[in-house]
Specification:
Layout lengths: L3 E4 L1 H35 L1 H4 L5 H24 L1 E9 L2 E8 L3 H48 L15 H33 L10 H29 L1 H19 L1
Parallel strand pairs: 1-3
Antiparallel strand pairs: 2-3
Helix pairs in contact: 1-3, 1-4, 3-4, 4-5, 5-6, 6-7
């Protein structure tokens, strides 16, 4: 007897979305590390100039990515697709979840969605304040130094003025940090809701609401990634130059 095989699309989406969550959490951890790195280099450059070398940074990013991947291995091991007979002549691949899935998912939520993202928001906010304060102090010091070298100068720059490069850096860091915090809020609230209400999950009473709000969280994270690039292009001339150079080279290779 021949069978017609079908794949349940919702089940396939549910399984694949966890890989998206893993890469998003890696991005959160890497963003937090980069914020700490920039903050330390600006606040105490003499102490940390030799600490954050290219080799050590590559090693740190590798360890961070590896640690996040390890926390997701139990999640991947407790989900999959299984074949069921929907009727006499057709079979379907549907979602399979291990009996230990609620425990595994709960641990993953606590580690990656609550602890990691809550800590990331706090750390990024603190780094933002420290970075802004030291950039303003450095700008004021340079203004005073230039003023002291001007013999017979009758007017000095206003103490409230900030050089354009410093102002652009402060704006870019502020915008990126604010978007980072705002884009993480939906995911945090989504995770807290899933922890508080057991029926807010797949194959439970609020399954449809779970899928809808999950896509809202994904949309917020995608918008953050897209807008971050726009911020760097607008406020970071070096990033914009490298991006234009890459796009031009890629366009030339395609034309050839």
């Amino acid at each position: 007897m021949e069978y017609d095989s079908f794949i349940d699309f919702i089940s396939l989406v549910y399984i694949s979305i966890w890989y998206d969550h893993m890469f998003c959490d890696i991005s959160v951890a890497v963003t937090t590390y980069m914020a700490v790195q920039r903050c330390c280099c600006v606040a105490m450059p003499l102490h940390f100039r030799s600490v954050f070398t290219n080799k050590r940074t590559a090693q740190a990013l590798t360890c961070i990515s590896g640690a996040v991947v390890v926390t997701y291995l139990p999640v991947f091991a407790t989900q999959g697709l299984q074949v069921v007979n929907s009727n006499a002549t057709s079979r379907k691949l549907v979602l399979w979840l291990s009996p230990r899935r609620p425990t595994v998912q709960g641990v993953n939520d606590v580690i990656n969605k609550i602890i990691l993202r809550s800590a990331a928001q706090i750390i990024v906010a603190v780094c933002l304040v420290v970075l802004a304060v030291h950039l303003m102090a450095a700008s004021k010091f340079r203004r005073n130094l230039r003023s002291s070298r001007q013999d017979g100068a009758k007017q000095r720059e206003s103490p409230a003025s900030i050089s354009r490069p410093d102002l652009q850096v402060i704006k870019s860091v502020t915008l990126v940090s604010v978007m980072f915090v705002l884009s993480n809020c939906p995911r945090l609230m989504f995770t807290y809701a899933r922890r508080i209400e057991p029926e807010f999950n797949v194959l439970r009473a609020y399954e449809n609401l779970y899928y809808v709000l999950s896509q809202v969280c994904n949309l917020a994270e995608c918008m953050n990634a897209s807008l971050t690039i726009c911020v760097y292009v607008t406020h970071n001339s070096r990033f914009a130059a490298v991006l234009r150079k890459y796009l031009c080279c890629h366009s030339d290779s395609v034309d050839e």
